[in-house]
Amino acid sequence: MIEVLILKIEDPGCFWVILKGCGSLVDNEVEYRKLHAEMNQFYNQSCRDVDEVMPLTLEEGQVCVVFCQELRCWCRAVIKTIMSCMEHCLVECFLVDYAKYIPVKTRDIRVAVEAFMRLPYRARKFRLYRIKPVTLHINFCEDTAEIVPAKIWDGAAIQYFQKLLRETTQIEAKLCAIEDERFDVYLYVTAQDEKVCVNDELVAKNFACYMSTEENTNNPTNKPSKQSPLSLVDFPEKVISPVLALWPVFLQGKAPQNLKTGEHNVYMLISEICILCRLLQFLNPDPLKTDHFENEKQVFQNLAFFNTIYTYLCVLIFNCSLALIIKNNVLKSFRIKCPTFTQSYCWPPIARGCDVVVISHHGNDPLLYIPPILTFLQLRGCYKSLPSGNGPTTLIVCPGWKKAQLIFELLKKYGRCSRPLHPLLLLVGLNNEEVKNIKLQQGCEVIVTTPYSLLRLLEHHSLLLLRLCHLVLDEVEVLLSEASKQVFMILEYYRKTIPVAGRESVPRQVVVVGTRWNKHIEHVTREFMNDPYIVITSMEEASVYGNVQQVVHLSLNCDKISVLLRILDYTPSNAQKTLLFTNSVDETEMVYRSSLKDDKFTKAKSILLLTERNGCHAAGVLHYLEHTDAKIPPELRDFTAGVLKAKEDMKLARPLCHYLKALGVCKNMRICPDRHQVNLQIDFPPKSSDQITSAVGYVTILPLHIVDATNYFGRIVDKKEDQYAILAVEMDKYFKKASNKVSVEMVKKLSLYGLHEEKVFHRVQVLEVFPKEENGFFYNVTIKYIDEGRTGQVQGHQLFPLPAELQSLPPQAVEFIVCRVKPIDNETEWNPKITRYINQKIKGKLHEARVVLTLGNTVWVDPMVQVTRLPDLKISVNEYNIRSEILSMGMGTDNPEHIKQLQKLCESAKMLPPEKKTLQTSTVAHHPTPLLLWSRVKVVAPLCRPRRPWPGRPLPSTTPHCCHCPPLPHGSFFPEIKWFQKEDTVTMKIKIRNVTDCKCEFLRNRVTFSAFSEDKFYLVDTELYENILTEKSVCEIKNEEPVIILAKEKKESWLKLLKHKNPNVSFDFEHWEDCGNESPFPKVVTNLQNQSLSVPFLSTHNG
């Protein structure tokens, strides 16, 4: 036995020691001290003539002497890696006497003098003899799990090995073999006067297994060196793991032979409980305390001890290393007595630092990975070699902000009993300034984020993940379907950014959790994971993982047996495995007997035969086949489409889908409970409130209840006669009388009542009445404020009877949705940050909005702006635009298809008349159509926050307009127009550039034009001097400017363009010659002396 001193530990298969004591192999401490003193004296004196001791070349593996800044002395070393740098070369060297890796500048490297090589390297490389690492292998086909050999040591084994050597008072080694300067030893540690063999301890803890003599001989790395043959004591070929010695008999899964029948049943129950105990023992680095168990025979002599054993096992659960988190957080909070089936499989490898893939029906549950990861994070020693600085060791990537928020709250809750981790919820938008200013809290160990947010942060903080060890992908099937590019960028960054050299003992773990398996996950396991554990507890997903062939055929129920047998006739001889499903035992036997008639049916084929009786399963089968990329019969698609259409028709009484209204699309139509089509009776009732029927064109709205950033409830305010203001005065006057302010004795559901709240009386409708609590005097009711749109809960005695005259006014609450904007990053819900911002900005304030569509009680507006009127200047200024505010915050993005999708629904319900459209042009032939009606079915771009009235010439409210046209909205602009004419046409040049959403309508004596340019809305609604041919008139874009060409009804010269004069319209003198010799203007009076035009005459013909 040789006493040793541990210098450096990488794993049980590679650690460096110093030999102590006496013997031929033992180091002489005095000789090494003398050697180092001579070396330092020599190289310090030779600094005057450095060129003589400087090496001419440097190569990997070269022996040299280097100066170590940490030890402040010259040391013998071996060059491992040469790295280039801008000013000089850095060389990574291994100090052979200290077992250290250090970077050294080339100027600090010297030639190794032969006299200083007289002593062997003091740091000796050891490994434990005849043991190898193990891992847990799961066989899903047989539903079994077994411990099998592995290639690398996991983090838990390394940590336990370090703990054994750290807590000992003496370390001894028994040398067994020497090969390539590596010593194979049995290692013994002494702690509390007890000597333990580390080799056997690792095997007992299931961190390793023994190698048989034959296996050890065939392994070239374990063959003794021919130069150093040692006599070895052979082990038996079959070695039984001594770990079983730690378990009582009933914990080994073997029942005693002398048990009676009743006792055997009790024993089986105890064995099931022991499975949990084994799992926790597997996670627990401390030895199992078996001395508290009573004698096995004594336990089974009295069956009453069963409860005592069960109680003890439950106590044992809460005393393992994982139980500190489970006991105080997870199990108590969720009242869980033991891990679930999936948790039992995935917790051990995750807690040991292995790469893991978990696919389960409960794959969206964060408790699959949070407890074991928190357990691993308690091992501070695993992270000592990480680079210094501030950065996370664990990164959890979620598909959306809602899931990230949930996991963040769980980490804060369950991390209270662990060491401080300071978790951070990282959700950033498109605002670069916000991303640049983000700073991590000191000591932040865990970051919860989304793929898009993380990549935005990495653009400005590229060194954020230098300390990252654990990467978790939550709901991986959603991540890879909606953000696959971003996820693979994160994985590549994780693989390339973190250096590998010198960090063998630092954990590197990727955990993937989800509900469905797909080909992208297979690519992740192959390219970014190292020997991963794949845990699949969902059998249908296991078939996808195993590439089981899926074949589907349709037939009538009466013909299914014959169809099945006919399909089997075409089965090739090399068919894959087949699984047949039948409805009865008789059918199973019939198919089995038929298949035995041919030898080629010894190999099976997977067939799923659907009949008309299986219609309820058609949608699910189609969904699964699409997931497996199987060939789908067209008949099944058509049949499923009919089934889904019938399900949608059954939802006609449901409200219109919220996501369809807010975003224009619903991602989960198959499972969404609401309807996704227009219902004429609900969306366009014959009798609707006055404010809804009048909600066309430009309206003034008052938001009172903010649902999210684009969805509000409020009222449409009529500035001429506000019916609700009159009602509010009447209600206040009515309830001022004490006789009218009497509580309702019996509240009825769906009835209207009065409610006094914050000095204001409201009309409310009762939605639900809750029963009185035991020993309670009052009962609660859920109410809806019918004039505001919000809901709440009050006590029944707070409601007052409402007279009929105060109920006559229809509910004034209207739902408003701002168009053409949606959440960033493919989210379907708005981030609470932007919702709070919009709520503070718009609630209770009047806004101007343009109605683009109305369905039922929902009004879509675009734009929605707050307008400030300057009466002295007779102009109006848009203070802000809701859509622009959302975009500027970086939490929203453009959604151009929003209203188009809703219009398609209306067209499918015969709501909208077909339109004859040319490029950016709509033509209406013979009847005048008001602009407001046209705006109901058109998508109009928003007003974009102009702060100054010029350069667009805002049109004052007193601008003349035709009786067929509504007043122009405040904040719109009349563009400058240049016109000229030919014999059969009149050309109008609209002097604005870079227009968007350009629209033009022609009437016989009228033209209407609208467009957006540089954040301003331009509107032209003019009555022409003469009539035109609407079907031949067009609007085009030439040289980035709109040009309207009017076809004259009569080929004659027009004296002017407009019937009413407009200062923004003038004749285009550049085309004076195009008008021919005859001028369309009267003769201009000229002052011969000043040679100037008479302005009054010209101005009379500008329009």
From TrEMBL:
It holds the Pfam family TUDOR. The keyword Plastid does not apply. Keywords: ATP-binding, Developmental protein, Differentiation, Helicase, Hydrolase, Meiosis, Nucleotide-binding, Repeat, RNA-mediated gene silencing, Spermatogenesis. Residues 972-1058 form the CS domain. Gene3D superfamilies: 2.30.30.140, 2.40.50.90, 2.60.40.790, P-loop containing nucleotide triphosphate hydrolases (3.40.50.300). One of its GO terms (molecular function) is RNA helicase activity. Its EC number is 3.6.4.13. GO terms for biological process: germ-line stem cell division; meiotic cell cycle; regulatory ncRNA-mediated gene silencing; spermatogenesis. Transmembrane segments: none annotated. InterPro entries: CS_dom, DEAD/DEAH_box_helicase_dom, HSP20-like_chaperone, P-loop_NTPase, SNase_OB-fold_sf, Tudor, Tudor_TDRD12_rpt1. It catalyses: ATP + H2O = ADP + phosphate + H(+). Component of a mRNP complex containing PIWIL2, TDRD1 and piRNAs. Component of the PET complex, at least composed of EXD1, PIWIL2, TDRD12 and piRNAs. Probable ATP-binding RNA helicase required during spermatogenesis to repress transposable elements and preventing their mobilization, which is essential for the germline integrity. Acts via the piRNA metabolic process, which mediates the repression of transposable elements during meiosis by forming complexes composed of piRNAs and Piwi proteins and governs the methylation and subsequent repression of transposons. Involved in the secondary piRNAs metabolic process. This is Putative ATP-dependent RNA helicase TDRD12.
